[in-house]
């Protein structure tokens, strides 16, 4: 096992830089195309939207780091349920903001516990367990919300959309949250246990790590982050809708992989998630700005993502 | 025009009064709805309309059963299996909102061979034995440009928000818009993004492309994306242009707020989710022995400046502006075809 400092150094070494280089390159290509027009606003928009991918991306990263087979497919349903539950509870009242946050996190907590119960007690592989639980969660959201679009409280909408010199306030908050989670990953026993399990669950068990307890906490953490995302996203986009989480299934996995985290587990890369989330948004923006046809756009998206992943995995040093 | 419609309606009405006595013909018949997706407000409204109308029809003794089934994953294979189950369960008619226009044809043919009436709507199937209640999506796209021609005589730059890439509805609406733009000659589509008919996706896509765009005179849409576009313009601190809406309650409500605040003008067009009730009655009429043409075109539902308040008041919170068909409406519709 690596010592803490070498792992920290190792993680910061190289792979994550490629996502940022990719983001910068597509941004540059876009503003060259527009003749410099809208360069700043484009970054502001990218930061605003990347924030949401980052929140769920970090959760997914923790789960994927647990090793082969670990993944959470219930993120979109979880986002939707948290958004619907909190918006309905708050009913646009400012004084209910904290209560709404509490309700969103509670729904996330319930989802996390339910997911782990399926995985552990019924011994269902995570990919199947979280997929089937997402049907149940989404059905709950449909039954509870009935497609109702309730506006978020004004103060929450304000908080999620405020900019400070072009930098979204929410993005700053999530950078702080990401930093705290990064410290947790690299400086605490819990974080190191996740990586140890991802590298070799048997060895981790013999080393005295309570493997199942750590897995439980990790799925819980991922579910909590997804519900936080649902709460903030509903505030940001003027209410919860039944399909608000849909695009965050692929996004949560893509930012993890492009960000340089090993799909095989045991090797996390938190800063890369920010780079990858910015890259994904700016890439779509670039192809939209170029005005290419939908087919060509999707094709180029695929090719460029594969390119960045190859670059980032090539630069990964053998551990 | 109005009077002609009224005349046809009254003729249809008087014609329809006669066979009311023989309605019992279908009282023991069972109709099933095979639906491929339920995860947005339009589909929820569509299912609600079906349920309300179906329960009433069963209570009135017009039909034996009107059960609705929705597949979980919007998969062709899943829906084909669902249709096969319906054949085995002995339904007399199957009403389908299909995941694919041609991939379900095998299962649809099996149903037809078993003597089952198949009526498809919205997401139609191409199997010749089935009935189709389709929407002229291209005309829907073109109607947006017709409106803009009147509203913005000087023309200007347009931002186009498209639907889900690869779905024929998206291609049709977009083709209609582009035809309209070409014919008008006053407008230029300066940007085009895919909003997947979802507010959040549309907001994200518009926010991304907006900084690179010149002044936008109007946004042409496909429904379910107008509110998200408005949010993106607001967040970017740009004046909100004329955005065509898609009949969702949140879109209409936003329009109403803007109208009250600054006299904002636009129009809204989409298809009414209550088309499921039309499909239901068409199936019932065929079971009743009526001859019905295989290809029917349902009109789209449009909301204008003058009837915004009225239509908004009738639209459920979180729902979609709707028109539901009764048996009499359906007969009127069939008589006009």
Give the SSE layout.
The complex is a heterodimer of chains A (319) and B (337).
Chain A: H1 4-13, H2 15-34, H3 39-65, H4 75-90, H5 97-120, H6 126-145, H7 154-161, E1 163-164, E2 167-168, H8 169-187, H9 189-199, H10 201-206, H11 211-236, H12 248-258, H13 270-290, H14 294-314
Antiparallel strand pairs in A: 1-2
Helix pairs in contact in A: 2-13, 2-14, 3-8, 3-9, 3-11, 3-12, 3-13, 4-5, 4-6, 4-11, 5-6, 5-11, 7-11, 8-9, 9-11, 12-13, 13-14
Chain B: H1 2-17, E1 30-35, H2 41-59, E2 65-70, H3 76-88, E3 93-97, H4 105-113, E4 117-121, E5 131-135, H5 137-151, E6 156-162, H6 168-184, E7 187-194, H7 199-209, E8 218-220, H8 226-235, E9 242-243, H9 249-262, E10 268-270, H10 275-287, E11 295-298, E12 301-303, H11 308-314, H12 327-336
Parallel strand pairs in B: 1-2, 1-3, 3-4, 4-5, 5-11, 6-7, 6-8, 8-9
Antiparallel strand pairs in B: 10-12
Description:
The complex is a heterodimer of chains A (319) and B (337). Chain A is mainly α. Chain A has one domain. Chain A is built from 14 helices and 2 strands. Chain A has helices at residues 4-13, 15-34, 39-65, 75-90, 97-120, 126-145, 154-161, 169-187, 189-199, 201-206, 211-236, 248-258, 270-290, 294-314; strands spanning 163-164, 167-168. In chain A, helix 13 packs antiparallel against helix 14. The mean pLDDT of chain A is 89. Chain B has 337 residues and is of the alpha/beta class. Chain B folds into 2 domains: 2-136 and 272-301 and 319-336, 3-Layer(aba) Sandwich (Rossmann fold), CATH 3.40.50.2300; 137-270, Rossmann fold (3-Layer(aba) Sandwich), CATH 3.40.50. In chain B, strands 2-1-3-4-5-11 form a 6-stranded parallel β-sheet, with helices on both faces. Chain B has a 4-stranded parallel β-sheet with strand order 7-6-8-9. In chain B, strands 10-12 form a two-stranded antiparallel sheet. In chain B, helix 2 runs parallel beside helix 10 (275-287). Chain B is elongated. In chain B, 50% of the residues are buried. Chain A binds chain B through residues 30, 33-34, 37-42, 45-46, 48-49, 135, 138, 142, 145-150, 161, 233, 237-239, 241-244, 246-247, 281-282, 284-285, 288-289, 291, 294-295, 297-298, and chain B through 38-41, 44-45, 72, 162, 165-166, 191-194, 196, 198-201, 203-205, 207-213, 227-228, 231, 235-236, 249-250, 317-319.
């Amino acid at each position: 096992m690596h010592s803490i400092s070498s792992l920290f150094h190792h993680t910061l070494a190289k792979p994550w830089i490629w996502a940022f280089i990719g983001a910068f390159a597509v941004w540059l290509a876009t503003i060259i195309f527009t003749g410099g027009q809208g360069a700043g606003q484009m970054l502001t928009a990218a930061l605003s939207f990347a924030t949401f991918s980052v929140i769920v991306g970090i959760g997914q990263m923790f789960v994927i780091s647990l090793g082969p087979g670990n993944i959470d497919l219930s993120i979109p349903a979880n986002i939707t349920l948290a958004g619907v539950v909190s918006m309905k509870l708050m009913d646009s009242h400012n004084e209910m903001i904290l209560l709404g946050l509490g309700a969103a996190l509670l729904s996330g907590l319930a989802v996390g516990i339910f997911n782990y119960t399926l995985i552990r007690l019924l011994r269902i592989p995570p990919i199947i367990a979280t997929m089937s639980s997402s049907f149940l969660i989404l059905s709950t959201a449909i039954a509870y919300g009935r497609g109702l679009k309730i506006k978020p409280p004004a103060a929450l909408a304000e908080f999620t959309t405020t900019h400070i010199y072009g930098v979204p306030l929410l993005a700053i908050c999530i950078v702080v949250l990401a930093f705290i989670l990064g410290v947790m990953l690299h400086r605490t026993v819990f974080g190191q246990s996740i990586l140890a399990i991802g590298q070799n669950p048997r060895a981790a068990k013999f080393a005295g790590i309570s493997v199942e307890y750590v897995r439980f906490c990790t799925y819980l953490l991922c579910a909590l982050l997804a519900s936080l995302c649902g709460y903030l996203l509903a505030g940001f986009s003027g209410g919860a809708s039944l399909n608000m989480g849909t695009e965050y299934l692929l996004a949560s996995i893509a930012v993890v992989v492009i960000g340089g985290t090993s799909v095989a587990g045991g090797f996390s890369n938190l800063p890369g998630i920010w780079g990858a989330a910015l890259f994904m948004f700016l890439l779509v923006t670039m192809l939209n700005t170029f005005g290419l046809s939908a087919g060509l756009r999707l094709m180029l998206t695929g090719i460029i993502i594969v390119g960045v992943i190859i670059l980032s995995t090539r630069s990964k040093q053998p551990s | 025009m109005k009077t002609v419609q009224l005349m046809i309606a009254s003729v249809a009405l008087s014609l329809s009064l006669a066979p009311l006595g023989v309605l019992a013909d279908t009282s023991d018949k069972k109709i099933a709805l095979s639906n491929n997706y339920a995860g947005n407000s339009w589909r929820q409204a569509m299912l609600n309309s079906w349920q309300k109308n179906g329960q009433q029809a069963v209570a009135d003794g017009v039909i034996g059963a009107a059960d609705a089934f929705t597949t979980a994953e919007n998969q062709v294979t899943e829906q084909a299996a669902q249709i096969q189950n319906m054949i085995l369960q002995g339904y007399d008619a199957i009403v389908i909102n299909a995941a694919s226009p041609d991939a379900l044809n095998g299962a649809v043919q099996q149903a037809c061979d078993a003597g089952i009436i198949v009526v498809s709507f919205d997401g139609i199937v191409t199997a010749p034995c089935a009935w189709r209640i389709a929407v002229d999506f291209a005309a829907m796209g073109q109607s947006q440009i017709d409106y803009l021609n009147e509203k913005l005589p000087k023309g200007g730059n347009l931002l186009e928000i498209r639907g889900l890439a690869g779905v024929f509805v998206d291609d049709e609406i977009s083709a209609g818009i582009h035809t309209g733009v070409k014919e008008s000659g006053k407008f230029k589509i300066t940007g085009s993004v895919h909003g997947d008919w979802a507010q959040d996706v549309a907001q994200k896509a518009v926010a991304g492309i907006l900084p690179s765009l010149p002044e936008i005179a109007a946004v042409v849409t496909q429904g379910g994306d107008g509110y998200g576009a408005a949010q993106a313009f607001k967040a970017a601190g740009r004046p909100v242009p004329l955005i065509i809406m898609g009949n969702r309650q949140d879109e209409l409500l936003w329009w109403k707020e803007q109208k009250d605040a600054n006299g904002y003008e636009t129009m809204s067009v989409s298809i009414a989710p209550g088309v499921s009730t039309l499909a239901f009655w068409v199936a019932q009429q065929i079971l009743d022995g009526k001859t019905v043409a295989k290809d029917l075109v349902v009109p789209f539902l449009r909301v204008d400046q003058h009837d915004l308040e009225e239509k908004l008041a009738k639209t459920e919170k979180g729902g979609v502006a709707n028109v539901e068909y009764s048996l009499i409406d359906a007969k009127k519709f069939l008589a006009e075809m």
